[in-house]
Amino acid sequence: MKAFEYAAPSTEAEAIELMTERAGTVEILAGGTDLVGLMKQMLVNPDRVVNLMEIRSLREIEPTPSGGVSIGAAVSLEQILDSHYLDPYASLKQAINNISSMQLRCQGTLGGELCQRPQCWFFRGGHGLLGDDGRAVAQGDNRYHAVFANAGPAKFVNNSRLAPALIVRDARLRIVGPSPDAEQWVDLADFYRIPRHGEQRENVLRAGQFVSHIELPDPGSFQCATYEVRQGAGPEYPLTAAAARLNVQSGVVRDAKIVLGHVAPTPWRSEDAEHELIGKPLTAETIEAAGLAAIRLATPLSRNEYKVTLAQVSVERAVRMAAGLPPGGF
Amino acid sequence: MADIQYSWPDRDSSKVIGGRQIRLDGMAKSTGAAKYAYDINLKNMLVARALGSPHAHCTIKSIDSAQAEKVPGVVHVHVLDHAKPGREIRWQGELLVIVAAETEAAAMEGVSKLRVEYEPLEVFVDEFNLEAAKKAGRTSKDGGKVQLEKEPGDDEDEATFADKELERLFKQSAHVVEGFYGIDAITHCCLEPHGATVYWDNDQLIAYLSTQNVSGTDEGFANDLKIPADKIEVRCQYVGGGFGSKFAPDYWGTAAARIAKATGRPVKLMLSRDQEFKLGGNRPSAYLKVRLGADKDGVVTVWDSDHWSSPGADGPGVPQGVIPYVFAPKNYRRAVTKVTTNNGPARAWRAPNHPQGCAITQTAYDDMAARMGISSYDLFLKNLGTDDSPGVAGAKPSVYAAEMEIAARLIDWKAKWHPHGKGARRGDIVDGLGMSLHTWGGGGHESTCTVKIHPDGGVESFCGTQDIGSGTRTVCAMVLAETFGLGVDAIRINYGSSRFPVSGPSGGSTTVGGVSESHRRAGQEALAKICEMVAEKLGVPAAELIADDGRIKARGDAKKSVAWKEACAMLGMKPLEVTATFRPSRNKSPLSDTKVGGVQMAHVEVDTRTGLIRMRKFVAVQDMGLIINRRLAESQIYGAVIMGIAYSLFEQRISDPASGAFLNADMSKYNLCRLGDIGEIVVEMYEPESERSRGVIGLGEPPVIGPGAAISNAVCNALGFRVPVLPLTPQRVLEAIKNNAGRA
Question: Which end of chain B is more exposed for a tag (fewer CB within 10 A), N or C?
Answer without folding.
Answer: N
